[in-house]
Kynurenine 3-monooxygenase (Nezara viridula), 884 residues
Amino acid sequence: MKVLIVGGGLVGSLCACYFGLRGHEVHIYDFRNDPRTEKLSKGRSINLALSTRGIEALSRVGVEGVILEHGIPMKGRMIHSKSGEKKSIPYDPVYKKCIYSVGRKHLNELLITEAEKYQNVHLHFNHKITSVNFEEKKIFFKSADNNNSELKEDKGDLIVGADGAFSIVRREMMKQPMFNFSQTYIEHGYRELTIPPANNFKMESNHLHIWPRGEFMLIALPNQDDSWTVTLFMPLVKFDELQGKEHAIKSFFQQNFPDALQLIGDSKVIEDFSKPSHLVSIKCTKYNVGNKAVILGDSAHAMVPFYGQGMNAGFEDCRILDEFIHSEGLDLEEALELFSITRAKNAEAICNLSMYNYSEMRQLVTQTSYILRKKLDNILYWLFSSKWIPLYQSITFTNIPYSECLQNRKRQNVILRNVFYVLLCASVTPISWYIFRWKQSL
Amino acid sequence: MKVLIVGGGLVGSLCACYFGLRGHEVHIYDFRNDPRTEKLSKGRSINLALSTRGIEALSRVGVEGVILEHGIPMKGRMIHSKSGEKKSIPYDPVYKKCIYSVGRKHLNELLITEAEKYQNVHLHFNHKITSVNFEEKKIFFKSADNNNSELKEDKGDLIVGADGAFSIVRREMMKQPMFNFSQTYIEHGYRELTIPPANNFKMESNHLHIWPRGEFMLIALPNQDDSWTVTLFMPLVKFDELQGKEHAIKSFFQQNFPDALQLIGDSKVIEDFSKPSHLVSIKCTKYNVGNKAVILGDSAHAMVPFYGQGMNAGFEDCRILDEFIHSEGLDLEEALELFSITRAKNAEAICNLSMYNYSEMRQLVTQTSYILRKKLDNILYWLFSSKWIPLYQSITFTNIPYSECLQNRKRQNVILRNVFYVLLCASVTPISWYIFRWKQSL
């Protein structure tokens, strides 16, 4: 069939590889230039954490190797306290799995090059989609070729919307009856800074560094060139307060992130401390319009970045969509319906978990109760292996559907609570017995 | 100032009266024909329940009298059981207040005629808004005058979006950063039927008739011409099941609404039982773009119709917006910001209550615990008057902000629970004492 993919970002280009591999005629339309001819674009996260779901999805089209080659493994979180102490918390102390820091631009370029290797995949950059007609399976666009003056169209057998959080395809879907949708901005924004590559001072590589400070936090992911991309997450009002006040910005960093300030450099912190970007969480149902169109990735479920699953969930969409469309006994409409039901449920779970994980990263990682539970979880994981996979590990290092991971966690909580009561009874009963005997002996 | 109102429906035309009365230059743009030259349009509810908030808002521009003249008072719900028994539950047994059934078309025509009386109010029907530029306070539209070919524009000092649940103004606002939005369709739809005017058989007028049947329900509101508009609310899947099956539709009505079927007529039920309309709940924040634009009514907060407050909340928006804009000490931007914060909080409350009231209408009205609580509430209302206003009465018969009504209800629940515990203790203590004495006397 002829597949029109709107959006040539990470998810769109991987999706093209899947359809390309199956021999379909694929056309990617993207309003931007080919990223391989472009400099780094501002306003999008620079590097991302690739984990098991993403790797699994890449491996099905045979590109995981070339991508992991460039990824930097991160085996745990490195927590920086205010006083400059550091503490490593491994992601998977039992099986030593790790996540990988990859550059968005690099990954996108690789995937586009991979997609292009299929003769049946055709790239159309500088083509801006203006609207979609689902009934006729047509997309309408303006292209830079003719100065954006003339409205052109293409007609396919399936329209795939992979055009991100502000998706045009989803916007058109919203006009369909019974389309539920929500977009929720959080009151926090983010700003990216950079620790330049250097030889004389460095942070421990192979870690995702976190400076949790309650109301706000700083994180750092390593880049290929030995530099670090540092992201400050903070309430928007706090950004507003500091905006333009060089002295206040410097003393804010000195007070809260003295070690990071030293690495980034005073002048660079002040220079790069401009308006923050916003963070939005998007949910909708359903993801398809009959057998005519489907959305996936951020256009179906944008999430706040605190579980590091946005890209991984999008890649997983591609794998599951491919499985459903090419599974025997399902026609295209049934496959898309099933995809929509399955993925919307799982997207809901990971969107909610991502929101929750923000407070975990800012606060909980420093709390004793949280650390104890994590230790207990890891012991049980070590003892019972696949029977007791802690939440973080199941989200990050398995392909178990997100909603099942969440269900498992709830089951684990119930078990732990019951065990606690049993232990309490078991310890209270002999104590009561001794007290009883002691009183009798008086 | 020059106010551009998008939408000339109920809320848009009342809003024009408010701005007109204050002497502003007002332009209403609506894509439809002037309703005064049109027949009844399909697909919109035919009559509506006007209550205190709506009446208060109408009275400020002096039009409540002419509207109430045409309204039919409904003093309570008439509950129809399956066996044909009927039971009247008054809305306000203490102060005998009632709600009014008014025709949407009639009310709209009246309000447009009222707005037109102001020389500074200008009507532009057959003008379809295509987009809005908030920065320049411009709206762009195509008009039927020139065959919709040419894109024209108008520039004002304030753009008011009163263009309903599928608002174009809101759609443009969604592109602003930090604009939260959700649209949720419920799994139930509705279909309107009619009981024709007749002399030989009739229902008790001055009531809103309800046939609660658990999973679905029928309601009927009286019209001026002695006919009744009957609405069936039911799960969409159930509509699908019955669609096109004449025999099944008839036996469904025979089984569940035998008395209503007799009044509507077999052939009319089958004839009018076509595709159901959908029900959507819409929430968003915020309602304004600086001092440039504001949305109100359904475009800001569409709700499911089960509390009868959609129109009333929209009319109340007009009153509150007028108060804020013309209150001393607030500039336009401050007034719009305050309007947005205040009304979004209250809209959230009434949207949620409306959703909840659906199950109340379908099920609770027949349950003993619900009826007892209602009775207890009414006794306390009678005893303590303004100190104990039951939820339904405060929503329907006062101008207390919706969110406060909800808070009051929560406070009332706590008080009742505490009183219950005190009474329980008070009755248990003497009983224990007697048991103790009795055992001693053995």
